[in-house]
Amino acid sequence: MTIPAVRTASLTRHFGGVHALDDVTLEIPRGCIFGFLGPNGSGKTTMIRLLLGLLEPTAGTAEVLGYSTRSDAAAVRQRSGALLEHCGLYERLSAADNLELYGRFWRLPGGERRARAKELLTLLDLYERRDEVVGGWSRGMKQQLAIARALLHRPELVFLDEPSAGLDPVAAVALRDRLAQLSAGAGVTVFLTTHNLAEAERLCTLVGVVRRGRLLAFGTPAQLGAAREGAGIEITGTGLSEVLVAMVTALPGVVSARRDGRALLVGLARGAATGPVVAALVAAGFQVDSVRNTAGSLEDAFHALLEAQS
Amino acid sequence: MNDALAVAWKEWRELLGQRGARGKAGIGLFLLAFGIVLPLETGPSWITSPSVGIAWSWVPMFLVSTVIADAFAGERERHTLETLLATRLPDGAILAGKMVAAIGYAGGLTAGSLLLAEVALNLVGPRHGLLWYAPQVLLTLAVIGLLGSVFVAAVGVLISLRAATVRQAQMALGGTIIVLLLVPVLALRRLPPGWKRGLLPSAGSGARLALLALLVFALLDVGVVALAKLRFTRARLISL
Predict the structure, then answer these.
(1) Do A86 and B89 touch (CB under 8 A)?
(2) CATH number where A34 lies
């Protein structure tokens, strides 16, 4: 039987009265890309800290790559790479020195250290700037370098806390491709947290949705989307106001309605039709640009899960 | 040991390599003042005076105190601590690396200043043959300097582990060192004369007294380093 990359049983962590993580049980197989999704403060970072053995659980157990995070945390860290909440780069050092340092930490021989650093920096288009002090770099460049640092020693498992934060759209797509390649080609397990649900849906083979420390759902994005009852629509246009949102919420068959920039996200009860909602909006003066069915998407399922819990 | 040296390498690299003009200027100014200007002003006694060893043994302690507050408080302030703790490095290696870096930096600057002074005085000083530091001066400096540096480094690490910012750690360390130095001196002064007379003969000759003081210092070092190691736990360093 293959040992999973991550296995937790009733994993719980409290900070005084705050339940940062509450009774989380999950199993993540090796070689997959797992997305841990949830709003800010839902326990995602605490989960990573617990899995790296940086925090002791209040209750429950966690095993990473077959090692207990309580008794064998050093073995877990030996085999893992991490990009945490902050990119954690030494800003007074150059990019090359940052990688050299972490190469030394992981005891890579000198030649391999330099070759690996060159390979990663070249891949990320940073090689020409390797001797620059990273303090002056943009957030996206720092984030790229921090990802390179996390992968430097070829870990079996890599934790990435919001890896695409600060990246431009091109770099974000490139990162997504690289992570998919890493998982498919090298069999590396990726544990990532993200707010970007579209990215999670495209990239992750498994996702977990967490809120206030509790795991609300766990499965493939398709499974989560299919489990969502009823339909969801996204209506974009001009003239959206809180009054309109309230009006839509009160319509028969509407389960939820919320504003997201220029878009109105509407959750419909099973069997409810889209037409009356659009008609009511048009009648109220809203100029509709587009109507999109979001039912079955991870984003729709995510919001439905959170709304059901609130 | 390799792990501790890797941590120390980073510290030295930050301190000396890329610290910027201000840091480098500070180090240059120190070497200029204590390696060239003051020795030339003072003359050969800068090297030959028997009190050189005692006087200079304070220097490494002072230099350690200028950098050690940054050890963990700086990492915390610059958001690099958690990433460092997420590596495979054992607790002891991180702690030792931080202390070795500070002590090495202080020792290097002290040795550099002494060497520069020797070169400067021999080059431009009076021609009485070569001037050398007496072996007992160097021994005093090495032993007291090292014991003092380890003590300040360990106390500094203890403070830095709990401080939220470097500034907070520096203030706390400054206050702690003053208290640790002043309390024994003031306590000794306040002892009744009869007690003082009673204490000194029981300790024996001057050499025995010095040896006893060094032994107490060494034990103190072992105690503070052990305490620092005990207080260094990853879970404690991660905040909510």
Answers:
(1) no
(2) 3.40.50.300
Domain's final residue, options A191, A221, A251? A221
Number of Cβ within a 10 Å radius of residue B132: 12
Q: Are A34 and A192 contacting, i.e. CB atoms less than 8 angstroms apart?
A: yes
Domain-ending residue, one of A190, A221, A252: A221
A42-86 pLDDT, tens digit per residue, is 899 999 999 999 999 999 999 999 999 999 999 999 999 999 989
Q: Is the same domain home to A126 and A267?
A: no
pLDDT surpasses 70 at B163: yes
Element (H, E) at B181: helix B166-190
In a domain, A173, yes or no: yes
In the block, tokens 């030394």 appear at: A104
d(CA B154, CA B71): 11
Chain A residues with CB-CB distance to B85 below 8 A: 54
Global pTM value: 0.82
* Percentages of chain A per state (helix, strand, coil), in multiples of 5: 40, 30, 30
CA distance B35 to B229: 36
Q: Is A49 within 8 Å of B238 when comparing Cβ atoms?
A: yes
Mean pLDDT, residues A204-213 taken together: 92
Assembly ipTM: 0.83
